[in-house]
UniProtKB/TrEMBL annotation:
Belongs to the DedA family. Residues 43-169 form the VTT domain. This is DedA family protein. The chain crosses the membrane at residues 13-31, 68-92, 157-182, 188-209. Pfam families: VTT_dom. It comes from Actinocorallia libanotica. InterPro entries: DedA-like, VTT_dom. Keywords: Cell membrane, Membrane, Transmembrane, Transmembrane helix. It is found in: Cell membrane. Its main location: membrane.
Length: 220
């Protein structure tokens, strides 16, 4: 077992902690991050990207790791993300506002729910379910929010699956191909994830800006 970093926010920490069961551990975190409220504290994009790297290399920062199976990640990742999100949707539909009726704490902020609700209302249910996958914290809270706001479970499942495949497999494959092509890729993991996040957020930010511009224009 190798634990490279002391902070649970580091993907290397979790991959080292899971050891030979790294693939199962990654899938468990994907499930928790999309289905359980405390999952918003777990690493998401960086973990998926790093796991993808470890399908092509067996060493990070000079520490040996057991290589992870790419097919297992490509199939298991979206499945875990879909099941987790459906659980979140069910919890929201079952418990409604009571699920979020709690004081702010380390694992909960009311502003996170408000942010998820903003995206849900701004882009509409279908787009929001897909877009949320690429936004940390929002991807955790939007699923129960969709259930609470009455989005049909079957319709949610369709867009949940689309978002899960795009999110998981794009990060796994990016990590895999960069891990195979770039020597010393471990030095670029965080910058690589940052670039991916920026590229995914740009269209969203553009839509938000357009919406605010239209609102101001109509208000004049």
């Amino acid at each position: 077992m190798h634990v490279l970093a002391s902070t649970p926010l580091s993907p290397e920490y979790w991959l080292g902690l899971f050891g030979a069961f790294a693939a199962a551990g990654v899938l468990a975190i994907v499930f928790a991050e999309t289905g359980l409220l405390f999952g918003c504290l777990l690493p998401g994009d960086s973990l998926l990207f790093t796991a993808g790297v470890l399908t092509a290399v067996d060493e990070l920062n000079g520490v040996a790791f057991q290589r992870i199976s790419l097919p297992v990640l490509l199939v298991g990742g979206p499945v875990a993300a879909v099941v987790g999100a459906q659980l979140g949707h069910w919890l929201g539909a079952r418990y409604g506002r009571k699920l979020f009726d709690r004081p702010d704490s380390r694992i909960f902020r009311r502003e996170w729910v408000e942010k998820a609700e903003y995206y849900f209302n701004r882009f509409g249910p279908e787009k929001a379910v897909v877009i949320a996958r690429f936004i940390p914290i929002v991807r955790t809270f939007l699923n129960p929010l969709a259930g609470m706001l009455g989005m049909d479970a079957r319709r949610f499942l369709v867009w949940n699956a689309v978002g899960a495949v795009l999110w998981c497999d794009s990060l796994f494959l990016t990590g895999h191909y960069l891990g195979a092509a770039v020597p010393g890729i471990d030095r670029y993991i965080l910058p690589g994830v940052a670039v991916i996040l920026v590229l995914s957020v740009v269209p969203i930010a553009r839509e938000v800006w357009k919406g605010r511009t239209e609102t101001k224009r109509l208000g004049q």
